[in-house]
Amino acid sequence: MRAATVVLGAGHAGLAMSRCLADRSIDHVVLERGEVANSWKTERWDSLHLLTPNWQSRLPGYGYQGDDPDGFRDMSETIRFIERYAEASGAPLRTHTTVTSVRPGGDGYEIVTDRGRWTARTVVIATGPCNIPIVPSLATGLPAGIEQVTPNNYRNPAQLPGGGVLVVGASATGIQLAEEIHLSGRPVILAVGEHIRLPRTYRGRDIKWWMDRVGVMDETLEDVDDVDRARQVPSLQLIGSEDRRTLDLNRLAELGVELVGRLVGLRDGRMMFAGSLANQAASSDLKMNRLLERIDEWVEANESAGALGTPERFASTRVPASPRLTLALETGEIRSVVWATGFRPDHSWLDVPVFDRKARIRHAGGVVTDAPGLYVTGLPFLRRRKSSFIDGAADDARELSAHLAGYLANWRRMAS
User: Which of 29, 169, 293, 374 is the most exposed place for a label (fewest CB within 10 A)?
Assistant: First the structure.
């Protein structure tokens, strides 16, 4: 089987690329290991809602069509949104097709699957950044009686044993799960590393509205000093809820969640935490206030004074004066650990020498630098700060499809 382009993955990024390829009349196929929106269906917890408002789902030729643009979709609504997009765009799908190898072959690439082989001049990798949970190596040293889960296999508090829970990681996932598990009646300790605190609303508008309006999410690779650092920024401390509440460390502490520093080791049956909790909180507060100042400056420059609410500042993050530095596991204080410590992509099937020393694909804005005709999309800050969000797929897909079309046209000229 042959196509000019094979797209790997039928999530929002792969479908956006498919639509842009179709708009350019480029022959292509989309291969998906499961079903459309497979990760949304199989690797998300029950209560999860998007962190972005409904209006902020703008895919090529498609957007939110409901009557609650400022609400936050739950998983079932998100799945239906992506499924409807696949249908509306007429994507040439091959579902339940697992790719086992992509390697150079012929005049392009050979894609080996459990349902046959494809050849293509170009390949677009749209399998996402969150395939494999990052779990620290010390996890192997925990006692067998302590349950360990990751956001990929956590569904709700009922699956955890009774007793205390340690949640490791305080970005969006960690704070949401810490709140949910605590409200289920279990004592929760939250190990806090680097995080970015934000209010859900500011000056009468959703913080995501501001970030869109001010241009934060449209910042490109040229707008940042350290691209690698920008790609490692943790997810924002936000929750999408009907009451539009702010969820941060202050709120969790008020509920009774115990805050400790970053988990740094395990020795002699004791978990050890860094003494940097206050510094981490102060750094996060500083970053939040810088963004709020940027918003205020934009309002002054672009709107009449007071037209969009008044400036606000929020109480500093309150941390314990002497947070604990160790946790003895033999006491039974905790019975389970939730590793909200991030994810990494799975490119184990990619048999092309394009990886750096950290096993990441080397690319320039989605164009794989060491393999002509190979592209990647849907990764954090691929071309813009919003690249990994549903709302960021459209611009990246348009630009990458333009590059891909030019590459194919040049190849045809060279071949003729």
Answer: 293
Instruction: Specify the long-range contacts of residues 131-135, CB closer than 8 Å, at least 24 apart.
Output: 131/39, 131/343, 131/344, 131/345, 131/346, 132/343, 132/344, 132/345, 132/346, 133/339, 133/341, 133/342, 133/343, 134/339, 134/341, 134/342, 134/343, 134/344, 135/339, 135/341
Q: Of 305, 339, 373, which residue is a domain's last? A: 339
Give domain status of residue 407, yes or no: yes
Looking at the structure, do residues 211 and 108 belong to the same domain, yes or no?
A: no
Within-domain flag for 265: yes
Each residue's pLDDT, cut to its tens digit, for the chain (416 residues) gives 999 999 999 999 999 999 999 999 999 999 999 999 999 999 999 999 999 999 999 999 999 999 999 999 999 999 999 999 999 999 999 999 999 999 999 889 999 999 999 999 999 999 999 999 999 999 999 999 999 999 999 999 999 999 999 999 999 999 999 999 999 999 999 999 999 999 999 999 999 999 999 999 999 999 999 999 999 999 999 999 999 999 999 999 999 999 999 999 999 999 999 999 999 999 999 999 999 999 999 999 987 666 788 999 999 999 999 999 999 999 999 999 999 999 999 999 999 999 999 999 999 999 999 999 999 999 999 999 999 999 999 999 999 999 999 999 998 888 77
Question: Model pTM?
Answer: 0.95
Of 339, 372, 392, the residue that ends a domain is 339
Q: Are residues 187 and 253 in the same domain?
A: yes
CATH classification of the domain holding 94:
3.50.50.60
Tell me which residue range forms the domain holding 377: 2-131+345-415
